[in-house]
């Protein structure tokens, strides 16, 4: 598959993944209980914890959406006023983040760091994620990268995945036509985002319908420079 630029998803591709987000969800429940809030039953349903990460809100939501989902779980469980629900959700997430060590959050998945570094020597590279830019920069710093790829999140564009906005924004910044870009992701929304922008998509971890390619891990990706 030819590419003049590559865009990586973060969670489940470079680091983390659904098991990590389930752990984070448990931290949310733990912090809620400290505040006398019994929200687990509603939160499990609202976040879609019992569904695959490739389709559930827990696996795909932006951090802004996570705040809203958590506030909704508080509302559904206790019917506090919505302003209080917002404040409590923010407090819970902030407290949970204090328990998330860099080793837990940022340990690279097999082949991820090596492939990212190798590709950055050859073509423009970006990371397009539902996570925050702050979290992505923290990961890359933890990896010891001096030069960082372009970072694009829902904070930068009007619409999150599966809309094409992240790919189109990155393409403009990288100076590469979308048709010359390959997106590497682990969810249906990554493939849909790529195709709606006119780019190609490789799925990681599981075969996703309509993806242009598939690998079990990034260790399987072979890079060849065409003259």
Can you give a write-up of this model?
The chain has helices at 18-34, 40-47, 57-60, 63-78, 82-97, 102-106, 112-120, 133-142, 165-174, 188-197, and strands at 5-8, 125-129, 150-153, 181-185, 200-204, 213-215. The protein is of the alpha/beta class. It folds into 2 domains: 5-16 and 107-220, Rossmann fold; 18-102. It has a 6-stranded parallel sheet, with helices on both faces. Strand 2, helix 8 (133-142) and strand 3 form a beta-alpha-beta unit. The longest helix has 17 residues, at 18-34. The two termini are 15 Å apart.
Largest sheet: 6 strands, parallel
Q: State the CATH architecture of the largest domain.
A: 3-Layer(aba) Sandwich
Summarize the helix and strand pattern as letters.
EHHHHHHHEHEHEHEE
* Whole-number tally of structural domains: 2
- CATH topology term of the largest domain: Rossmann fold
SSE layout and pairing:
Elements: E1 5-8, H1 18-34, H2 40-47, H3 57-60, H4 63-78, H5 82-97, H6 102-106, H7 112-120, E2 125-129, H8 133-142, E3 150-153, H9 165-174, E4 181-185, H10 188-197, E5 200-204, E6 213-215
Parallel strand pairs: 1-2, 1-4, 2-3, 4-5, 5-6
């Amino acid at each position: 598959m030819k590419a003049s630029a590559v865009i990586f998803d973060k969670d489940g591709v470079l680091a983390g993944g659904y098991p990590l987000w389930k752990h984070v969800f448990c931290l949310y429940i733990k912090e809620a209980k400290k505040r006398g809030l019994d929200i687990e039953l509603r939160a499990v349903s609202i976040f879609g914890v019992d569904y695959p990460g490739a389709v559930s809100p827990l696996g795909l939501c932006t951090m802004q959406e996570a705040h809203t989902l958590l506030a909704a779980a508080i509302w559904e469980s206790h019917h506090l006023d919505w302003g209080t629900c917002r404040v409590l959700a923010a407090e819970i997430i902030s407290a949970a983040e204090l328990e998330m060590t860099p080793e837990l959050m940022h340990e690279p998945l097999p082949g991820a760091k090596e492939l990212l570094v190798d590709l950055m020597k050859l073509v423009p590279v970006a990371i397009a994620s539902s996570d925050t830019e702050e979290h992505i920069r923290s990961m890359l710093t933890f990896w010891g990268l001096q030069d960082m790829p372009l970072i694009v999140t829902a904070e930068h564009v009007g619409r999150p995945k599966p809309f094409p906005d992240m790919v189109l924004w990155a393409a403009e910044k990288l100076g590469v036509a979308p048709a010359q870009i390959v997106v590497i992701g682990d969810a249906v929304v990554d493939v849909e985002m790529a195709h709606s922008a006119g780019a190609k998509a490789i799925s990681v971890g599981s075969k996703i319908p309509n993806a242009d390619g598939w690998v079990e891990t990034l260790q399987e990706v072979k890079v060849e420079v065409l003259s």
